[in-house]
Amino acid sequence: MRKRKLRWSLTTYMVLLIATCLSTWSARNWYRNDVFRSSITEFAKEVDSKHWLKYDVVIVSGSVTCVLELVVGGIRRFLSRSGTIHIVVPDEILLQCLDIEAVTCHRETQILARDSVNLTSKNSMGWQGTSTRTKWYYQQLLKLLAYERIELSSDFFLWDADNILIKPYNPFVNGVTRFPIRGGTPSNLYSIATRALIGVHGQNNVVVHQMLLSKMSLREMLEHICGHRHHESCAMHILDRIPQDAPPNGALSEYHLYFAWYSSNHHVLVDSDIKYIRTDPVNKSNGTSEDCIRTRELIRTASTDKHTYMVVYEVS
Fold first, then answer.
1. Residue 283 DSSP one-character state
2. Are the CB atoms for 61 and 89 separated by under 8 Å?
3. What CATH number is given to the structural domain containing 187?
4. DSSP string, 130-152
C-alpha cells in the first residue's frame, strides 16, 4: 500500500514538474514570439521610414514606340529599387502596350472618363485651354489622379514616356527626397494656376520629366484642392479653378504643382547636378526604328558627361 502511495506521489510530482516546465517554456516562447513580432513590426516601420521599399512607376503615354521600350529598359536597369511599371495608354492601343515585357498596362478611361472632363469650353473663371493642348491637359490629370484607380507603392514615380534613364539614380539622399531642377526660376507659365490651386507658386523649375511622389502628400494636396471630390469630379474642379489670366497653352503642370505643395511642407534636396538633354520639343519624332537608332547614338554621347542622367527624346 505504501509503495502504491509512493508511486502515485512520484507520478503526480513528475506530472506537476513537467506541466510547470511546459508552462514556463510556453510563457517564454510566447514572450519570444511576441518580441519577435514586435521587432518585425518596428523593423517594417523603419524600412518604410528609410524608403528601402520599392517604388512603382506611372507612365502616361499617347503612343507605344521603341522609345517607350527604351524608357522602360532604362528604368529597370538604372532606377534604384524600381517596382511595378504602370503604363497608361489610350484604349485603342492597349494591346500594343501589352507586348512590352514586364509592365502593367491600363486604359486611360480606367483612370478618367475623357468625355466627363470638359476641355473644350471656358471654365467658370473665363479660362480655356488651347484646343491643340487638350490631350496634354488630360494627361496631366491622368497622372495626378492615377493613384485613385491603380494600387501603387507609398512612394511612386511619375515618369514621362520619352525620358530615358542612362545612369544609376537614387531618388533619396540621406533620407531626403531629391528633386532635380532646371536652371533659373520658374516662369509664370505654371505659377498662376499653382497659386490659385494651393496658395503657393513654387520657387524652382522642377519640370524635368520625372518626379518621386509621396502618395500621402499627393492625397493631402488633392483633398486641399478638391475637398471630398474624386476621379472625374476632382479633375473638373481642378480645371474650373484655373484663373482667366493663366496661359492657355500651359497653365497646369503636375510636377510644378506637386513640388510647390510638397516643398512648402517638407525638407527637400534641390539638386542642380542631375542634368538631362532633350531633343527639340517643337519637332517631335514618331518613334520609328530610325528614331531609336538616333536615340541610342544620343545616349552614347550623353553617357560621357557625368552629370547627364537622362535623355529626353520627344515623341508625338
1. S
2. yes
3. 3.90.550
4. -GGGHHHHHHHHHHHHGGGTS--
pLDDT tens for each residue of 95-127: 999 999 999 999 999 999 988 888 889 999 999
d(CA 242, CA 87): 28
Strands (E), the chain: 55-60, 82-89, 104-107, 155-159, 163-165, 172-173, 176-180, 210-214, 269-271, 275-278, 308-312
What's the CA gap between 75 and 85, in Å, rounded?
9
Question: Minimal CA–CA distance to 247: which of 136, 95, 107?
Answer: 136
- What is the DSSP secondary structure assignment for residue 312, as one 8-state letter? E
One domain, residues 62 and 31: no
Residue 135, classified by CB atoms within 10 Å of its CB into exposed (0-12), middle (13-18) or buried (19+), is exposed
Segments of the chain with pLDDT less than 50:
2-8, 13, 15, 22-51, 282
Order of strands, sheet of 155-159, starting from the edge strand that comes earlier in the sequence: 104-107, 82-89, 55-60, 155-159, 210-214
C-alpha to C-alpha distance for 270 and 262, rounded to whole angstroms: 12
CB 249 within 8 A of CB 188: no
Q: How far apart are CA 290 and CA 66, in angstroms?
A: 10
| Same-domain status, 40 and 65 | no
The pTM (predicted TM-score) of the whole model is 0.80
**What is the tally of structural domains in the chain?**
2
Residues 6+ apart with CB under 8 A from 176: 267, 268, 269
